[in-house]
Every structure is written in structure tokens, then in C-alpha cells.
Amino acid sequence: MTQRCDVERALRASAPHALVDTLRAVLTESYGALGVQLLLADYGATALTPFGAPATPGASVPVANSVEGRVFGSQEPRRQVRQGEVVEHHLPVSVRGERTGILTVRLPVERSVPHTVDDLVYAAELLGHELLVAERDTDVYQRARRISRLTLAAEMQWQLLPARACSAAEYAIGAQLEPAYAIHGDNYDWASDAHELTLSVTDGMGTGVNASLLTHLAVNALRNARRAGIGIADQAALADQALYAQYRGRAHVSSLLLRFDLTTGRVQAVDAGSPQLWRMRGKTVELIDLDPQMPLGMFEETQYVAKEFEVLPGDRLLIVSDGVYAALSPQGEAYAQRALARALHASMLLPAATVPRAVLRHLSEFRAAEPLDDSLVLCVDWFGKP
């Protein structure tokens, strides 16, 4: 316990940019660590990049087909014996379902005992929380996550997002945007309290910075209305007014708003545009009809109506943008026609956090050409009230 307290005190007292150096020093002193390395997941969740290593093409470890990648996917610690005398421990670094990366700690084989491993798992969890706080004050971790340069539009969009995953007793969420380094107008947002979960998926028309600016206004208008404690129909109406006041109908934002009652599983939905909502219940995959209404900002003072449906424990919901469901195969078949259901069946055993990446990988193999539009996939696994 004393050693755990030493790690916690050291990380809390560390300068934001020096967390890894601080952790390396305390693990070396307290546990005899021979090496400590942090690998951070990149924006596309396809590679793990060593923090502090030179930005070279061969520095990153692929998430697919690597020990570190398997730990990242399973979120379970794993050990490797090196030359019989050194044991490498690969430990997941995450915060409330958001997968940040992998902490690798090298120990002498005689020090690699169960209670030490438990302490290292605890240290990795602490590091995840401290990284989240540190990113308010330093750019070093965000720089390390990039295997190529973000466009300005993508920079704006990633800074607007809450995270790529979130979990609670009642639900688990995972989301991913592509192309990760050049996204334009697609976005998602969520917030929860003791009684409800609110989700929104938005798609600002256009490309580049103009689409990002439009989406920024829409997302912040929805947040402002949500934080005022009003219903999602009124949230949509107020965001619609804000967009119309700025653009006078010249630009609009397609949106899908969902509010989950955590106790009953009842869901209110406002479908204001193009995002589609699919449900997998058992082995049945179906598109949920939500009575589409006008996109936000298209007309002055549009009135929105929320439609209700119910989710049951074990349901999986998938929200996809038009860059996903409307993508065409070489034969001209839309992805939503049959391939989307196949992708859901193929990924049914994966946790929500990794489903979007799997669907987008399946999509890239399906479509005929490089996409002209963003692709967004958001997955919600519903467990219900414990």
C-alpha cells in the first residue's frame, strides 16, 4: 500500500509533460523496473506510438497482430518473458472505457510476482487519469498520438469530441471517425447523469474548415440547451434557431438526438437529418424508423417532435453517418442494404469500444473507391439498470 501511495503522490506532483519520466523513476525505485514505456493510441486507433520516441515510420506498433494491440483490444494485462531473466508487462491505460494506450514495464523475473503486477495495473490506471488532466496544460501527448499531421478541420473536430469510448453500469459506448486525420463535418457528443444518457450525432454540410465551423456552432448550441435542462425536442429547436440566425438557411446540420432513461430503457429520439440508427437484438438487425424531420438551421423556427422507443438489456445500437450507409460497392450496392448487417454479426462478440473500428475496416473492404465524405460509427451496448 505504501508503494501505491508513493506512485500516486509522485504522479499528482509531477509536471504535466513529465508524467512518464516521473512514473519511470518511482517504478524503478519502488519495484526495480528495468524499463517503462508508454504507447499512445493514434487518432485512427490503428497504431500505438511510443511516447518520447523519435517520430519515425517504424516507431509505431500496429494494433492488429501485436501483443500490445491485443492488450489494447482486450483491456487485459499480458506478460512476455524476455531471455528468461526479464518479464515485460503490458498494461492497459484507460479512463472510464476510453482506451488511451499501453504501459509496458520491464521487471527482473524475481520481482514479477502477483502483488507487484496488481500494483502496476493500479499505476497504469492512475496514469490514465493523470494524462486526461495533463492534456489541458500540455500538447506533448497529443503530438505523440499523431502518425501524420491533422488537417485544421480535423484538429477542430477532434477537440470538440468528448472521447472515443465511455462506459457505465447501464451502457457502454464506442465511436470512431474516418478519415481520422482529415475529417470535416461529422461529429458526436454525449453526457450522462444519475438518471439519463444523452447522445447526439451531427453532420455539418460542406467540407473543410467551413463544415467544422458549422458543426462547432451546432454542437455547442445543443450543449448549451442540454445544460439548461430542457428536453431534446427543445434542444433541437434552440440549435436550429442558432444556426438559422447565423446562416439564414444557407447551411444546415443533419442531426440525431437520443435521450436514454437509465432506469426504464425508454429512449426519446429526434431525427433531424441523415444519421441512421440500427438495432441488433439477438441476431436480428433492423433499421429503426424515427420519422425524419428537417435538418437543423434549414428553416426559421422549425418545431421538432421526439419519438419514443425502448431498448432491452443485450441490445446493441449502431448510429452511422451517410458516409457509411450510403457507401457503394463496385457493383453499386449500398452498404446499408446487406453489408452493414453482416458487419454487425461479425463483430457481435466485440466490446462496444472496438465495434466502430471493426465496422469501418469492413466498410473499407466493401466500397468501390476512396470516400468523398466522412464516415462516423457510434455503438451503444445497453445493459440496463443493475
UniProtKB/TrEMBL annotation:
Keywords (A to Z) from UniProt: Hydrolase
This protein's record includes keyword Hydrolase: yes
Q: Which residues cross the membrane?
A: none
Using the record's annotation, list all stretches that form the PPM-type phosphatase domain.
Answer: 168-382
Which leading EC class covers this enzyme? hydrolase
Q: Sorted alphabetically, which InterPro entries does this protein's record hold?
A: Bact_Sigma-Reg, PPM-type-like_dom_sf, PPM-type_phosphatase-like_dom
User: What SMART domains does this protein map onto?
Assistant: PP2C_SIG
Catalytic activity, EC: 3.1.3.16
Q: Which Pfam families match?
A: SpoIIE
Tell me one GO molecular function of this protein.
Answer: protein serine/threonine phosphatase activity
State the signal peptide span.
Answer: none
Q: Which Gene3D superfamilies match?
A: PPM-type phosphatase domain (3.60.40.10)
Task: State the protein's name.
Answer: PP2C family protein-serine/threonine phosphatase
Organism of this sequence: Streptomyces mooreae
